[in-house]
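Worked Example 4.2. Read the sequence first, then its structure tokens.
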Amino acid sequence: MTSGLRELLVGEGQGVLATLSARRDGWPFASIAPYALSERGEPLLLMSDLAEHTRNIRADSRASLLVQDSAALADPQAGSRLTLLGRVEPLEQEEAPSAQARYVERHPQSTGYFVMADFHLYVLRLTEARFVSGFGDMGWLTADRLHRELAPS
């Protein structure tokens, strides 16, 4: 069931970030979120203090990130997809230089955002995920298993 999980996350560069709305009584709120992967394979998110999803995670850090195979957009249910669940946290100071380098490598156009005072890197600390690799091939993965699957080879 996990065949292709790492390839999907490495091969794609954006997902749909779902947070719980601080302004709308906890209603789900989804937004496009470019991501890179940390050394542990967890999504790194560059977010502005002004963004709605940033306000949401400051009120409740629970979030999910849906990543789908962009090659299957014509028939999205035929492609693989992964919904990562976890808590979005600011990066620890010692993680920042490596994380920034990883993010800029994946998204070179983001370089200018790092000089702006209101943009900061966050990480989605994984708790579990739902992976669908094809019709009838799906299941839940624990954080431990995710970390094993997403660890660099």
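Now turn to a second chain, presented in exactly the same format:
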Amino acid sequence: MESTRIQTAKAFIAAYSTLSVEAFLPLLADDYTHTFAPASLGRPTPKTKSEFAAQMSSLRGVLRGISVHVKEAIDSASSNRVVIWATGETAFRDEAKDAGLPDEEWRAAGEYVFMFTMDEGGARVARLVEFVDSKSADRVMGLVVRARKNVAERQNGA
């Protein structure tokens, strides 16, 4: 039987499939912080619970979700932490894509390491450090910028 810590971490990972804020929020402690690493990515961190929710909501405007698959999970009762090594692939919304790229180029795959620190009971995440595949992250950010431009143009009737 999996620990509450592992169940919480896996539920968090599963929430990426839809980027639903409603799926993430019950899993986060009130004082939740989210740090993206490595620092060379230049992302402002750490993010608070509300900043993380806003980011997921914003991404949902162009992404259907991110399919994340756990490769390995380490559960540490003594430190109340879970480490997950995973792979993931973006799924952009059709309305965010343009004909300038073939469909397969709208998918970006990468590897991730999530270091969860849980609240006292293990049912909520107090702190998360998310190491992202920097090569993939650069590509995804470029696609997100392009997708947001496409969505804005379509909304403005361009």
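Notes for the reader: The chain has a mean pLDDT of 93. Residues 134-155 form the longest helix (22 residues).
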